[in-house]
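Hi Y.,

Following your request, here is the sequence exactly as I used it, all 97 residues.
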Amino acid sequence: MDKEAKQEKKRREKENRKRKKNAKVLCQDGKTYWTTQAQFWQWVREKVIVKVDDGPLCGKFVRENGEYDVVLSNTVLNLRCPNHLREALMSRRRALQ
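Below is the corresponding structure, written out as tokens. Let me know if you'd prefer a different format.
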């Protein structure tokens, strides 16, 4: 293998590596899940979660049901409110017709 082929192979391997999820987030309903440190600190800066512990890095959602918030077409929706999601999708469909 020549030098360029080795560099290309190394670059592809680096892209294919999975990101380590080593920060734990506690939900208000008792569930926990793991996320990356970068995402964890982004949420801390945005005041979505509060840091609770260092080992392992651990945080808790500030708002109740905050873990169910999603963004759909620049609109924040809560998956716990099915009517909210349904109405947003219906208005989006009406706008596209």
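DSSP finds three helices and six strands in the chain.

Thanks again,
Q.
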